[in-house]
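FAQ: What does a ligand-bound record look like?

Like this one, built around 4'-deoxy-4'-aminopyridoxal-5'-phosphate:
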Amino acid sequence: MSYEDVKKVWMNGRLVDFADAKIHAFSHVFHYGSAMFEGARLYKNRHGSAFFRLDEHIKRLYDSCKVYRMDVSLSMAEFKEAIVETIRANGYDECYIRPVIYRGLGALGVNPFHSPVDVMIAVWRWGKYLGEEALEQGVDVCVSSWNRMAPNTFPAMAKATGNYLNSALIKMEAVTNGFSEGIALDNAGRVSEGSGENIFVVYGGRLLTPPLAGTILPGITRDSIMTLARDAGFTVVEQQIAREMLYIADEVFFTGTAAEITPIRSVDHITVGAGRRGPVTERLQKDFFELIRGEAPDRYGWLTPLPVEAAVR
Ligand code: PMP
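The answer part, i.e. the structure of the complex:
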């Protein structure tokens, strides 16, 4: 990943140069992980450039802040404007969007109430998260020895930076052992999610995914895939998934803004299904990417065009 072509970063209402996008070492967030963030995408398509479900990402960001009692000074509409402004300043027609709302420089100590709520918006070019080939060939993953945090520890519906220490443990263990990614179980031993992706299983002719019961992020790609799958005639069920179902399923795949829809070809060195992308995964990828590329009608209103003046600068 390279940030060479990142020109400007939005910080508390000002566009600053990449080199000046800094926060103070006494900021609360640096000591206590007190930040909420998002990851969204602007896609280039045949009609121009369009955000994928940006309103839902902003809503989730504001929901995360609500859980952690952070009052954001901007309205959601103003936040969206700020994102457009940041993209315009960088001249991108396609990018990853990373807003962060964090407790800044105030008073150190665990109590965050004495530190201001600051906002940063970064955008950069980001290709395929798990590799270019992954979308077609699938990835080899493991079940992590680390569990996802239990519901009454860290609220999983909030996309808080602190949660990603758990994700980092899962990811480091996986890559150290030669896998692309790790799947975490929940505190009861059931399948939860990847370090940065939700998970789906094709089993018994149905598409299964763990419920929003306190250990997974309510993924926007997850929601999109459930909608596309139901429209394509598949039965989709949110239910508890046993670890061993990952081994005996016909297909398993990840969903996420970064990972998009990534097939899983093996879990713990056990081949899943035919050991390559299965037909259900392929069909859902097709429906997803055709919509994003503007080749299929945007029948759910998921795409928001980037204002034209932003695209041409
Ligand atoms: N779970 C975790 C832990 C994640 O970090 C992400 C990525 N934001 C997801 C699931 C997928 O969510 P989304 O589809 O909204 O990107």
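Follow-up question: can I read anything off the structure? Yes, for example: Residues 145 and 263 are 22 Å apart (CA to CA).
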